[in-house]
Amino acid sequence: MIQLEKISKWYNTNGARNFVLKDIHLDIEEGAFLSIMGPSGSGKSTLLNIIGMLDTSDEGNYRFFGESVFDLKEKKRTELYKKNIGYIFQAYHLIDELTVYENIETPLLYQDVKGSERKAMVADMLDRFNMVGKKDLFPSQLSGGQQQLVGIARALIAKPKLLLADEPTGNLNSKQGEEIMELFKKINTEDKITIIQVTHSEKNAAYGDRIIDLLDGRIQQNIQ
Amino acid sequence: MIKNYIKTSFRNLWKNRSHSFLNIAGLGIGIACAALIYLWVEDELNYNHHFANRKNLYKVKDQQTYDGTTYVFDATPGKLAEGIKTEIPGIKRTSRATWNSKKLFSAGDKSINEEGYYVDPSFLSMFELKFIKGNAIHAFDQLRSLVITEKMAIKFFGNTEVTGQTLKVDNQQDYIITGVVEDMPTDVSIQFEWLSPFKIYEDNNEWLQQWGSNGIITYVETEPNANIEAINKMMFGFVQTKKSESIAHMFIYPMERWRLYDTFDNGKETEGRIKYVHLFSIIAWIILLIACINFMNLATARSEQRAREVGVRKVLGAGKSKLIAQFIGESLIMAFIAALLSVLILVLVLPAFNGLVEKELSANIFKWNHLSALMGISLLCGLFAGSYPAFYLSSFNPVQVLKGLKLKTNVSAVFVRKGLVILQFSISIILIISTMIIYRQVNHIRQRNLGYNRQELVYLPVEGNVVPHFNAIKYDLQKTGFVENAALSRSMVLQLGSNTGDFNWEGKDPNKQVLITVESVSPEYISTMGMKVKEGRDFYSNIKSDSNNVIINESFAKIINRKNIVGSTVTWGDDSKYTIVGVVNDFVYNNMYGTAAPLILFTDTTSVNYLTVRFKPNSNLSAALPAFEKVMKANNPGYLVEYKFVDESFDQYFKTEKLIGKLAAVFSILAIVISCLGLFGLAAYTAERRTKEIGIRKVLGASVNGLATLLSKDFLILVLISCFIAFPVSYWMMHNWLNDYDYRVAMSWWIFVAAGLLAILIALITVSYQAIKVALTNPVKSLRNE
Ligand SMILES: Nc1ncnc2c1ncn2[C@@H]1O[C@H](COP(=O)(O)OP(=O)(O)OP(=O)(O)O)[C@@H](O)[C@H]1O
Ligand SMILES: [Mg+2]
Fold it and tell me: Has residue B751 got a pLDDT over 60?
């Protein structure tokens, strides 16, 4: 599904190249559950963003279902992206001006899903995450765990093939974190959604079937 | 999708209420202001549209060239109307008309002066008068018949059932009312309360039979598809076919241009009022531009707050175009709210505006062209003002904004923002300077020394027995102790109506005609007005002893240019010879901005129209005027005493300039208010952004004063730069404007400095409120917030 070849990214500081990622090679099969670990500043988020097509690399090749992502026009890339990828953040990043319902609904709007269908899909999601009673609340009226659930619901609503999560449990306590991880596991096995998560916790990383360890922009370890 | 956008937009607007308010208020004021101008311009452009047949209506203009300078008059010969109708193809109807003249009408014990014209019967149908009583065909069947307006009928009789009734005119003949017509609207060139057959006037004025005497107006209606060029070709030489030596060349001038053009410079049509119509249309657009700039500036300045939303939406799959659509949609929503607000503002200020421009404009929001203009303008503003922020916001990189890092201040965005503020303030300062210069020019001219003392001087038309009893009246007036002197004259002193090129004198180039103003006066004229005899003497008080003598003004003396002017002679036409007995100082007449044209004064009271009375200096007018009226009534019973002050009539000459000054003032105030709304928003935003920095600086020991200065400084620099842009531009603009006036004020440097200081002061007050507010906040609070 995902093939990264010789991916490098750098920033120029004081004229010198400062590598954030260096020669990353990575193959990810459909249905995998990958955890990315590594110390702070090692390039985890950067790598995730490149996979998520939000960022580009300075060197190397990225194939997504065989398509060479960096060669695509922006419009095409957005199309590919919104059909296939769901994103979850440590800081949830819900839209403050929209209710829980509307937040979950938003990705469907960008995919031009019809109104009735949309309603059904959102209702389904709310049901699945036990948030029917909270659908009219605004993000500021929810706890962190609840907000992250909304974030996950929002990422899953459009039935992506790939779910990217950057420290999804970073702002949650360990119990909430565990619940999220269980949920991920379920999504991965039952819905066959490929998951790539960035995490600092060994325990959370272990939910995945594969862990890669980044250090200074290089893959240090690749545990299947 | 749209619902989702609208929801976010409204919630966003509500969440940032004060910001939204500034934005909407600025735009609303801008649109209201443009709407006022629109109504004014529309009214000007629709002038005379009351006449459905206006495309075929003309008046005859008379063009005469003297010594290389061409003058254009409305005055035409009496026989022209009949002549061109029968001889020039394409001319359907013509009508002669006198100038607007006041007559005293009486019925029972009611006596009122009313204005009207003597016209030919064709006038009634040419101008499509709507008869309430009587009809256009038979109204003038009788000689002394009278068509009056509804208003006049009601004034005299209380109703319009008045055909067959009579009104006594000037205490002499009875005229029979044969028709009542609807009142003329205020926005047409033809204004009257009564009309009477031209024949009456013709019978009393033999000169109307001469092709060389121009003294009445000729109106023309052409055939619908007439070839105007061909008509004018024949008009040009028409008088010459009757009187070959005439220098009067006629042309027909369309009704559509009477209001907004109808000014001529050396025979060429120049911009008249249309100049101001254009000017204010431009100002309307400029004010909208200023309001839109606010919108853009506030939107981009607030972009940080929107950045995260942009990032999230992009991550959720929003393409750039969808985001652009969202932000433009938001600005459209704001623009439409602003449009609603502008309607409210418009309704509230329209009465005051009407008072200012002396019109009766109404908003008529539901008239289709008004509604579509309003919608069009708000759409345009929404699109224009929303476009830049939309492109700017939608270009954010989601990775960067979602990192939660503050956006690096985008250098080009800041540059644009500063540039826009400079543009706004430059325009505002230009408007302020222009307003000040227009006011000064109006004041300058109003204080002009005309060459005589125009204070305590009243004039009134002579009626009844005033002329034959003049000496008695003068005696009685002086006996009241309030009146210094009184004089008769053909014209009122500000507007001398007759001139001729028929004078000759020794040493004059026989091939050149010089246009000389001719005025007949009673011997007291010069002393009553307070003019000075520069050479020779004034007229003798015995009018007969000077019947072959004249007094000329300095300009004329300069043209004759010889030693011993006094005692030399001029001839009028072929035979009449006059001796110059004196030279009077140049006084300003007709063109209040110009210098005195050559003038010759005769003592002759056979055809005088005005009595001018000079009160003693500093006399108590509340006692003097009733005494004056009493004398007039006693000597001329049955007539009203309707007098005017010369200095008030003088002021009437500057109506347009005063109006322009007032409008310029209103619009420059609005421009600066809108600019300041924007500045206030920007300052609030900057203050908010720099709260943390201020907090740290305070902890490090900065003073409130120092901090307020720190925050205000940047904005003041922008205003200062605006000054340097505005100064040369407004100098150039006002230099051009003033150039139209021969008598004009100098552009002093202090006007520029004052306008600049004013702008800086206003900006400072606007900005410092925010600056001081932030500088005073407790640093612990602002730091903890981070
Ligand atoms: N705009 C930038 N300019 C220069 N360096 C940058 C920029 N953005 C990121 N970096 C650097 O890239 C490196 C990788 O950042 P990244 O966010 O991928 O780290 P991370 O592994 O996700 O760390 P954390 O666990 O703290 O989230 C960091 O060392 C950071 O300093
Ligand atoms: Mg990270």
Answer: yes
- Domain span including residue A186: 2-223
Query: Cα distance from B313 to chain A (closest Cα, Å)?
Result: 8
The span from the first CA to the last CA of chain B, in angstroms, equals 34
Of the CA atoms within 13 Å of residue B668, those in its CB half-sphere come to 23
pLDDT of B368-418, one tens digit each? 888 898 899 889 888 888 888 888 888 888 887 777 555 556 677 778 888
B375-384 tens-digit pLDDT: 998 898 888 8
The edge-to-edge listing of strands for the beta sheet with A67-68 is A16-28, A2-13, A59-64, A67-68
Number of domains in chain A: 1
ipTM of the complex as predicted: 0.85
Ligand 1 atom, smallest distance to B403 CA:
17
Tell me if A41 CB under 6 Å of ligand 1.
yes
Two tokens, residue A193 = 């959604």
Using an 8 Å CB-CB cutoff, list chain B residues near A110: 313, 316-319, 322
CB nearest A110 (choices: B7, B15, B316): B316
Give the CATH number of the domain where residue A205 resides.
Answer: 3.40.50.300
- Long-range contacts, A133-138 (Cβ 8 Å, 24+): A134/A100, A135/A99, A135/A100, A135/A101, A136/A99, A136/A100, A136/A101, A137/A99, A137/A100, A138/A96, A138/A97, A138/A98, A138/A99, A138/A100
Token digits for B223?
Answer: 């055939």
Is residue B451 within 8 A of residue B531, CB to CB? The reply is yes
Ligand nearest to the CA of B408: 1
B115 by Cβ neighbours in 10 Å (0-12 / 13-18 / 19+) ranks as: middle
Determine contact, residues B723/B427, Cβ cutoff 8 Å: no
DSSP string, B473-495: HHHHHHHTSSEEEEEEESSBTTB
pLDDT of B176 above 90 = yes
Look up the pTM and report it.
Answer: 0.79
Q: Which amino acid is at B24?
A: I
Strand partners of residue B115: B102
The pLDDT value given to residue B539: 94
Interchain proximity B322–A110, CB inside 8 Å: yes
Q: Give the pLDDT confidence score for residue B786 in this predicted structure.
A: 38
Report the Cα B36 to chain-centroid distance in Å: 15
Please give the Cα distance from B775 to B770 (Å, whole number): 8
